[in-house]
Amino acid sequence: MKKYLLYTCLLSVLTIANAQRSQVADTTIVTTHSTTINGQSISYRATTGTQPVWNEQNQPIAAVHYTYYERTNTSEANRPLVISFNGGPGSGSVWMHLAYTGPYVLNVDDEGYPVQPYGVKKNAYSVLDVADILFVNPVNTGYSRVLDDETDRNTFFGVEADIRYLADWINTFVTRANRWHSPKYLIGESYGTTRVSGLALELQNRQWMYLNGVILVSPTELGIHTGEGRREGPLGAALELPYFTAAAWYHRQLAPELQARDLEDLLPEVEAYALDELMPVLARGGFASFEEKQAAARQMAQYAGISADVILQYNLDVPTRFFWKELLRHKGLTVGRLDSRYTGIDRADGGDSPDFNAELTSWLHAFTPAVNYYFKNVLNYHTDVKYNMFGPVHPWDRSGNTTGEDLRQAMAMNPYLNVMVQSGYYDGATKYFDAKYTMWQLDPGGKMRDRLSFKGYRSGHMMYLRKEDLINANDDIRDFIKNSMPEPGAPAKY
């Protein structure tokens, strides 16, 4: 009898543990808070929980975790709603949630480096004063999970599938939250820019939901003139050079006359050289003259802070991974991929790529403890489900990526829709000049150029980690929202 009771108790404990480690399809936790943003007292309600993804038989097959912030001490009707996605694919919403637009940010220094004790602090620059914010974790990121193991992975894990199920999910959320009258904005970072560009058209065409704005933070190529993972050939090589200049300038590796200039004064000169002089030489490839190649290598070396001989060895097309290893090789340091302000050390100074991404390991120092603390202690969300900083979503079907054209078409169909690009000069993964090129190609005819804008910052992929850029980038979002709100009664027409 004692053995039976012991077995029963153990079985009960295991059942409870398993239940806690399994996500629930539909949950809600509500808490109330107050903060100060730009000197203004803000009260708000935070709702966090899960909302289902249903199959065609109306059965829940996945639980998507979200956090929704609503300002409560305002009489403003139909406040703007900003819907936020991070990237990867496979990345949780933690990055922008706890470092950019949300009401709390990481405990980091003013340049974005981790400090101890780990934790969070109130964000005095959040855009919650002007808009409500919804942070979404796509399936298998954050606390979101597949519920039905029999569900085909292709339902979630691909460019088109991701856009399709999230559009349905947003429709349900907007209906539940009674936000159909609100001006709506999508913001995405990195792969999240692919996601929100596709969603802009999917929401219009399939959900009949029209947006006022899309914000692309450190954007990918959006399927515009891309190779596998980067723009290839002469175009890709030319677009990289201004980033090389920015990273070299930051680490003081340029010649004194260039180093003495302000970065934002120098970069337009490098951009013009890359497009007007370097690209024609690259385009001629092996048929460019010896003198042309020598001259190009010398000028690139001046702008990139590495030797002309090395540049010639790569036929004027220096791989970024090599640049991260080469720029500070003489100091025994590498520079970061997503933010080249960060430096790392390798086992050996030799080689053609860094051993690890210095910036990412630095960020995970601060973000992982903070997100696990924040949900439990600030938002009262208790679960044994692990928060996936990077979730299992691969293989990811990248075929059929027409998201750049999707965004162009959404803008053409909706005269209210505006787009803003935000990029860090020191981002070596989604480079700022590449982002400019993407913006230029969104509307080749130029008829909508007054609805496209670009903002650059003196930081990297997550520009908001640096305090000065946290302030500036949030202010740019405020201005974007204000400027993209039509006057009452203004018709949506050309």
From TrEMBL:
Residues 1-19 form the signal peptide. InterPro entries: AB_hydrolase_fold, Peptidase_S10. One of its GO terms (molecular function) is serine-type carboxypeptidase activity. It holds the Pfam family Peptidase_S10. One of its GO terms (biological process) is proteolysis. Keywords: Carboxypeptidase, Glycoprotein, Hydrolase, Protease, Signal. The keyword Hydrolase applies. The keyword Glycoprotein applies. PANTHER family: RETINOID-INDUCIBLE SERINE CARBOXYPEPTIDASE, SERINE PROTEASE FAMILY S10 SERINE CARBOXYPEPTIDASE. This is Carboxypeptidase C (Cathepsin A).
